Amino acid sequence: MAMDSRVLVGLTLILVISGTLLVPGQGTCQGDIEGLMKECAVYVQRPGPKVNPSAACCMVVKKSDIPCACGRVTASVQKMIDMDKVVHVTAFCGKPLAHGTKCGSYVVP
């Protein structure tokens, strides 16, 4: 069951990156999007406990333009990932999202 949800999260992220689920008008983000999918998806997926990400995930987060990626989060993606976990992962990795940052319809408290 856990593997199935990881595959679903991965496929959803691939659709976002490929443009299938993109928010209209949003451009391409800088950073290693493939690395985010590979290294960090397990830490932000629904359901499951909030856990600290791996060093490999943090390395990718630090190289990525996370606020830009937030601009590409659609309602479909938000059904697959836990935005509170996204905030936790970015903060844990030393690249916290600023209060008020919007990720899809989620606003960072």
TrEMBL record:
<feature type="domain" description="Bifunctional inhibitor/plant lipid transfer protein/seed storage helical">
    <location>
        <begin position="26"/>
        <end position="103"/>
    </location>
</feature>
<protein>
    <recommendedName>
        <fullName>Bifunctional inhibitor/plant lipid transfer protein/seed storage helical domain-containing protein</fullName>
    </recommendedName>
</protein>
<feature type="signal peptide">
    <location>
        <begin position="1"/>
        <end position="27"/>
    </location>
</feature>
<dbReference type="Pfam" id="PF14368">
    <property type="entry name" value="LTP_2"/>
</dbReference>
<dbReference type="InterPro" id="IPR036312">
    <property type="entry name" value="Bifun_inhib/LTP/seed_sf"/>
</dbReference>
<dbReference type="InterPro" id="IPR016140">
    <property type="entry name" value="Bifunc_inhib/LTP/seed_store"/>
</dbReference>
<dbReference type="InterPro" id="IPR044741">
    <property type="entry name" value="NsLTP-like"/>
</dbReference>
<keyword id="KW-0732">Signal</keyword>
